[in-house]
Amino acid sequence: MPAGGHRCSAPRSIRTTRCSRHISRTGPWRPSERFALPQGVIHIERSRFLWGSRLYERLTLTNFSEHDAEVPLKLGFAADFADIFEVQGHVRKERGVHLPALVTERTVQLSYRGRDEVVRSTDIAFSLPPASISPHDAE
After folding, report:
1. CA nearest 85: which of 94, 76, 74, 72?
2. Least confident of 18-22, 67-71, 77-81, 104-108
3. Of 79, 80, 63, 82, which is closest to residue 71 (Cα–Cα)?
4. Phi, psi angle pair for 97, to nearest 5°
């Protein structure tokens, strides 16, 4: 997850349970033309949990600086719709077809029509509309 045009530091802590994962890290920002933040003052907390048939993810940024800061985030996403055999390393002779993504101001739906003609989809939704959104990322 790039933030401010940089990758975040290695995780400072990771807690995992059967249905959730919590990752804590700090940003790598150093003084520059765009960002005058010392390294480590922006803390990023990433929590994931399963509820029902969905995966939820929450990002929380905390600024430990004395000054307000605007930190742009870019979230990338994709869905390969690989079946369990492909995940295990088997190669298929034929695959289904990826369908065009459906994008709204707060959602992206990635879909695939399998060889069995069943359409499967992954829906990505944002609680607040991102500044920009595409079939591959949101900022």
Report:
1. 94
2. 18-22
3. 63
4. -120, 130
Output the pTM of the full model.
Answer: 0.70
First to last CA, the chain: 11
Tokens representing 50 are: 């399963």
Using CA atoms, how far apart are residues 104 and 22, in angstroms rounded to an integer? 28
Q: What percent of the chain has pLDDT over 90?
A: 32
Decide if pLDDT at 40 tops 50: yes
Residue 128, Ramachandran bin (φ over 0: left; ψ between -120 and 50: alpha; else beta)? beta
Question: Which residues make Cβ contacts (< 8 Å) with residue 99, sequence separation at least 6?
Answer: 111, 112, 113, 119
Q: Residue 19 phi/psi, 5° resolution?
A: -125, 10
The backbone torsions φ and ψ at residue 18, rounded to the nearest 5 degrees and listed phi first, read -60, -35
Sheet with 97-103, side-by-side order of all strands: 97-103, 107-113, 119-125
Q: How far apart are CA 46 and CA 69, in angstroms?
A: 19
Residue 20 structure tokens: 């959730």
Q: Which two tokens stand for residue 21?
A: 């994962």
Quote the tokens at residue 34.
Answer: 């765009």
